[in-house]
Structure formats: C-alpha cells, structure tokens
Amino acid sequence: MRVDARDDKGERIGRFEVDPAERPNLVRVTDATGTTHERYINWDGALDDSGHLRRCLLCGCQSMYRSKALPQVTPFIVVLAFVGAFIGLLGYASNPFVLPALIVLLVIDVATLIGSRLRLICYRCRSLYTRLPIARYHGRWSRAEAERVRTAQQNEVASPPPS
To answer: For the chain, which residues score pLDDT lower than 70?
Structure first.
C-alpha cells in the first residue's frame, strides 16, 4: 500500500510504500525539502480479519472514508467537454469533423471516470492510503463524522493529561 503521510496538523510529510504482510514498525519518509522523518506505525488492530485497513496507521484514528482519485488530466477533459457542448449549442455538431471529435471526447471522459482509483483518507490527520483493498464498511465523506472527529481532537488538545 502507498501512504501519503501527514502529521497531526494535516501537513504533508511525504510518501512511502509499506507491505502489510511485513508490518514494519518504523518507516523513513523524505519530504520535499529532503528532510528525513521517522514515523512509527502501530499495526495493533489496524487490519481486520480480511486484511483490510480498519484504522489509520499514523494517528490511530478509526474514522476513515473512501474517495475517488481522478487522473490529473480530468480538469482538461472537463474544459474540452464544455467547449464541445458550446460548439453543439452553436449548431456546429453536424460538421463531419466536429461530431467524431465530440464522440472521442466522450469516450475519453468515460475512460477517465472508469480508470479512477479508490483511496482511503483519515478524518483526523488526512493521510491518504492507496493501492490497497478497501472494505465495504468505509463509506463516503460525512460532515457529521468529520465534525465528531474534529471536536474529539479539540477536546484532546484542550484537556490536560491526568497526573
């Protein structure tokens, strides 16, 4: 699995690959500035019986959601689709060159949607997990769950540790 690691504040640290079968306790992550960070991974309870990720490996949060990772070419294709729709509204869609170009654009647009990958994102630290099987119990992003995690995180920071 590939992990885009973030710290507790949600700022990107770097990316690393980890094999769940090996379960390393320590990974080294190099950020964009070349600084190497060591991050400890807690595997206790992180995987369910089927080998799916249950909780975040970096912060331990049990609340995660699935999201689609669209290819980087998607915004360009969307702009071309709007241009194609505008050309169609102007009445040039019957042109023998425009109609095949619009059909090719439609095929490319559908292919990018089909080719998008699913990823898991932690509500707490916003670390991204890709290239892994995702369990069905991970749902889409929920505002209520995001607020619950944010409130719990603020309460952890506000309350002093017991003495």
So the answer is: 159-163
